[in-house]
Amino acid sequence: MIKQWFSKTTTLKRTITIFVLASLVISGPIAIAHSIWSPSKTAVTTKTSNRSKTTTTTAKETRKTIASLKAQFPTLSPGSLYSASIAAENRKPGTTSWRITGNPIPGQIEGFASSTFARVGDTLPFYISTISPSYSIVAYRMGWYQGNLARLIWKSGTLPGHLQPQCPILAPTNTVECSNWSQSIKIHISKAFIPGDYLFKLIASNGQQQYIPLTVVDPTSNGAIVVINAVSTWQAYNNYGGYSLYHGPNGANATRATKVSFDRPYAFDFGLGGGDFLGNELPLVAFAEKLGLNVTYVNSVYLQMHPSLILNHNAAVSLGHDEYYSVTMRDALQNGVNNGRSILFLGANAIFRRIRFEPSPMGQDRIEVNYRNPYQDPLFGKNNARVTANWPAFPDANNESSLIGLQYECNPVNAPLVVTDPSSWIFSGTNAYLGFKVPSLVGPEFDQYIPYSPHPSNLQILAHSPLLCRNVPYFSDMSYYSTPTGGGVFATGTNYWVVSLMGGCPSFTGPCPDPFTQTVTANVLKAFGSGGVGIIHPSIPNANSIYYNPPFPALTPVPPIISAPTTTKPPTPCSTGPKSQVTSTTSGSKTTSSTTTTLCPTATTSPSATSTTTATVTPG
């Protein structure tokens, strides 16, 4: 029986918000595969289904090397892989009352917190606007909770409603900033708020509902794995008040904001106020907590403020769409990799837009800056490293592939993932073979290995999936590489990965969950979270051989359909009913398709009446 997350489907920007809530399937522990990292007098041969490898590292030497790394990097493997408290927390029954019910309408109730994160003991101001005379707030911690995905932690009493003033739009950056709103309530983050990801559900007395997301962080945590909520990317796509980093009220890129503020709600049509959390992040959160892993949570802004936190954990997780990165944020991940930590990139298009933060009237790092055109950025020629052009672009190009191994290429696509290196330990327990396909797992954005872009020399391509994007042939790649300090970097190369972890298929397009994606994710989480993965599982370089001698051919572009000439007189616009014409225009990296329908005249429509529907696909 298919269940929808909400009683009414809501269109999100750049994400999927409808899932079937079924049990997650995992299989098998991590298999210790071949290792060629360190020379040894004793050789061990490991056979796989399609090849044999002679390894040169014994288990004893591996343990010795990891011990040496721990001495060199004292916080390596700081905490156990599993957490009894996380497991116990998620054995609690939870509730489904976190879901938005009824027929939600924009503008009925909305709000934001004065910070994107909080620590236990903090007291946080919230700013709520509603047309209703009263409302209440319920806080839910998100996780597995026996498949219910949330547990009720706190609720307010009945609060007086208040319609806040319109938020000013600051020129010349078109920044919507609601710092003119009055404080509605202060919420104390008590010990009941176990660190994790939270949705605060606003419930108006007229029944309307909307979310406010919050990350409750634990600054003292040395958990094996830290999950990073990508709030900088959420805010970039947030068009509350009519402006995002993509377009203004008329949908034009020319009127977009160059600075966006966290001092405003998330738009109603962006996760019902929850941003990108539901589609691109919650499935991984629920999956990791179901496994009982020792996970802790931060977000983009907290990482900006505390970049050294990466060194407190064995592994960091970048979620389904983690596009917007400051120099400080990126340096934090790179420093982690350099010091034996590991990173899972579970999406595509990560670290593509360079940003910087500025303070707002409400606090530090509450304004996100992204000019894109370097000549418009006031720092151009003064501090080019912080000019907010794309990471691979002038004036201080630093392609994301130097860290990830892959780079963003194109969207939108919907294609199968095709396995090319089934012998990898990453595929242990999946029964994958050369050419094994997972339908619809690649999309809507994808990453690819490009040999002339900067990348680790020992990059291992695990999947190499042929596809067409805008009728141009590409490959989407999945990759892994190890580091001499014991770390590893894994990249799925597709946005659909995280959503595929949830137990169901979206109703329109996208991936169906498969034990394959769940097993691979479990394998990598466990290996990376244990520490020393680069020693236990050194990558086997194959990127160039696969690129220049692909095991599967590229797809052939579809030729345009050319109609035969005709001498038949075309019908009048309404002689055969309404006429529709689809046109596409491209501005920069944004493609807009418009459908114009000519209506037949009736008693209430003129012969020239038209209706236009516009669908926008906004890549990267």
TrEMBL record:
InterPro entries: DMFA2_C
Pfam families for this protein: DMFA2_C
Domain of life: Bacteria
Bias type Low complexity, positions: 574-620
Region of interest (Disordered), ranges: 563-620
Residue ranges of every copy of the N,N-dimethylformamidase beta subunit-like C-terminal domain listed in the record: 138-505
Composition bias, Pro residues: 563-573
Protein name (Swiss-Prot/TrEMBL): N,N-dimethylformamidase beta subunit-like C-terminal domain-containing protein
